[in-house]
Structures are given as C-alpha cells and as structure tokens.
Design a protein that fits this description.
0% strand, Invertase/methylesterase_inhib, Pectinesterase inhibitor domain-containing protein
Length: 119
C-alpha cells in the first residue's frame, strides 16, 4: 500500500513538472525579457549607488532620472508577464520591494538635491 501511495505522489509531482514545461511561447519570452530587465535593475542600482555616493546625493543632473529608469525596468518585467497572462508572486514581491526602496531613497535624496542655478 505504501508503494502505491508513493507512486501516486511521484506521478503527481511529475505531472506538475510536465505542466511547467508546457508554458506558452509568450510566457517563455516574457520570462526571458524579465531576466534581462532584472539584470538591468541590478546593474542600474549598482551604478546609481556609485554616482549618488560620489556626488553625495543628487548632484548630477540625471541621477534622479537614472534611478527612476532603473525602477522602470522592474515594472517592465511585471508588465510583460501580465501581457503573457502570467502571474508570478515572487517577481511581483521583488517589484514591490524595489519600488518601496527606490521611492524611499528618492524622497530623501530629493530633499538633499542642490537648487538649480539660473543662468
């Protein structure tokens, strides 16, 4: 009897894995784009941090914009998945965490931003 139960569990696990292989081409493409977008988020945040540390805030004209573009890459990933009719809770959670972190940092850094000089 235990062997039969084990066999049923194994069959069920294998069926789940098989269904994962049957993702639509749109879903597969959306996940591939997500990998690219999240790679860009990681490298973008790294670059943003270097500039913000060097400038001691938003000293350069584009550093606030660059930070928001980095966040756009994370949003594009989730949008691409939604368009492919895929809901991925881990990616959605990652986007939410990234939005909160970037939003909080941006709010603080905007307060430190030097006033623009009029020419």
């Amino acid at each position: 009897m235990a062997a039969a139960a084990t066999s049923k569990h194994l069959e069920f696990a294998l069926a789940i894995l098989q269904s994962a292989k049957k993702r639509s081409p749109q879903a597969i493409e959306a996940y591939a784009l997500c990998k690219t977008y999240w790679d860009e988020v990681a490298s973008g945040l790294e670059g943003n941090l270097k500039v913000i540390k060097k400038d001691k805030g938003y000293a350069s004209d584009t550093s606030d914009y660059d930070l928001k573009v980095t966040l756009d890459n994370a949003t594009s990933c989730v949008t691409g998945l939604a368009n492919a009719q895929v809901q991925d809770l881990e990616i959605a959670k990652g986007l939410n965490n990234t939005q909160m972190a970037v939003g909080a940092a941006d709010t603080i850094l905007e307060g430190l931003k030097p006033p623009r000089k009029l020419n």
